[in-house]
Specification:
- This protein has one domain.
- It is 88% helix and 0% strand.
- Helix 1 packs across helix 3 and helix 2 packs across helix 3.
- Bound molecules: zinc ion.
- Zinc ion binds next to helix 3.
């Protein structure tokens, strides 16, 4: 077995790796500072991503609220447009 791939590291962090896979990763990490460092960096990246997606999630909530207010006027605008087309 060579070095641990990023996919395997991702699964290891997600906890979706099999028991045997986790054991192999742990064993490899204890013998390979290079992969241990890579895993640390990947973990950090994921934490940043998690924080970022949390922020985006909050923004999405705000957007949805303001959009639901404006969407009514938009819908009525388009309804009027359609009505005119139907009559023509
Ligand atoms: Zn390695």
């Amino acid at each position: 077995m060579g070095h641990i791939s990023e996919i395997e590291m991702g699964r290891y962090l997600d906890g979706t790796l099999s028991m045997l896979g986790r054991m192999m990763v742990k064993h490899h990490l204890s013998n390979c500072p290079k992969c241990a460092k890579e895993l640390e960096e990947l973990k950090k990246d994921r934490d940043d991503l998690k924080m970022l997606s949390g922020l985006i999630g909050e923004l999405d909530d705000a957007d949805t609220k303001s959009f639901s207010v404006t969407s009514e006027s938009v819908t009525s605008y388009f309804n009027t447009e359609n009505k005119e087309e139907d009559e023509t």
